[in-house]
Design a protein that fits this description.
Immunoglobulin-like; six-stranded mixed beta sheet; 1 helix; 2 domains; mainly beta; four-stranded antiparallel beta sheet
């Protein structure tokens, strides 16, 4: 995955500054005591040199799924102390690439669970030394999220709410609330199907592939209809959602949607 976001602050440094980071998500699997070294590419596609500073940060997801780069809500799932970065700071010339490597070393006594940390890339002008870089006004930041999955703890996820969300001028959505009571991170996939009063399927859309962190609850906004397909005729429809969260059986829920 390559992009110039996740943007924590979105104002550009200047009209000539453009930076891409790849990948934006790293998912690692390991046994306790394992270690690995990975590389992240920082590409300066702008016309001016840029100073890049890499730092580690805990994070969690808000209920709507947006990343929050603050101290982890549950510190026992933080992998920040296990990471070493090199180099923490560098200047990348215009049109060139830089590399930041990180080494993850998992302690031998780590319990199986889904751990996480992130690398924040801060961008500033190339001029100035380390002191200036520490005090520079950060105009934009890009985050690479790191998932460190240790062992294979069992998953335990339940659907606690399923409802429609209709906002004027926007396509209708079905909001599923999943509660993960296990110690592992799970990802979702599945389908949403609309049925008319006769029981015929009139539309099918895809459940987004998103993470649900250990011991957390989050909302998943599912499009009620595909964006490239016409909306169904006005009326009331039965909605069936099937979600695969890595359990032996699918999570199935039903609700209704009124299309006006």
């Amino acid at each position: 995955m390559t992009a110039s976001a996740v943007l924590v602050m979105a104002a550009p440094l200047s009209a000539q500054t453009s930076v891409e980071v790849s990948p934006l998500r790293v998912e690692l699997k390991s046994a306790p005591g394992g270690s690995t070294t990975q590389a992240i590419t920082v590409n300066n596609t702008g016309t001016e040199p840029v100073r890049v500073r890499a730092t580690l940060s805990d994070w969690h997801l808000a209920r709507d799924g947006s990343p929050q780069f603050v101290e982890a809500e549950n510190a026992r799932y933080s992998a920040t102390a296990w990471i070493r970065l090199a180099p923490p700071e560098q200047v990348i010339e215009a049109g060139k690439e830089g590399t930041v490597r990180f080494t993850l070393a998992i302690p031998a006594d780590t319990e199986p669970a889904g751990y996480r940390t992130s690398i924040l890339f801060e961008f500033g002008p190339a001029s100035g030394g380390a002191v200036a870089a520490r005090t520079m006004a950060v105009r934009s930041r890009i985050a690479t999220l790191i998932y460190a999955n240790v062992g294979e703890p069992p998953a335990a996820v339940e659907l606690t709410d399923l409802r429609s969300r209709v906002t004027p001028g926007q396509p209708p959505q079905i909001v599923a609330v999943l509660k993960n009571t296990s110690r592992r991170t799970v990802r979702t996939r599945g389908t949403l199907t609309l049925y008319d009063k006769s029981g015929a399927a009139v539309s099918e859309s895809v459940v987004p592939d998103v993470p649900v962190l250990p011991e957390s609850e989050r909302e998943i906004a599912i499009p009620a209809v595909n964006a490239d397909k016409p909306s169904p005729p006005p009326g009331e429809y039965r909605v069936e959602v099937k979600i695969d969260a890595g359990l032996p059986a699918l999570i199935v829920g039903e609700t209704t949607l009124k299309v006006s």
